Amino acid sequence: MMKMWVSFVGIGLMVLAAVVVMFARAKTKGILRFILSFIAFMFLLSGMLCGFIAIV
Questions:
Q1: Measuring CA to CA, which residue among 21, 11, 23 is closest to residue 48?
Q2: What is the pTM of this model?
């Protein structure tokens, strides 16, 4: 049961990363775009890690 919740968190982080990247590309410029994209990348890596944990 715990693996299911970990996988849901991973999926949620990946969706959040996609939303943040879309927002950053559509609405921001300059350093703010870079910061938001970097945060989204960290969300994506965290979601991937949660996915791997849920598989193992």
A1: 11
A2: 0.87
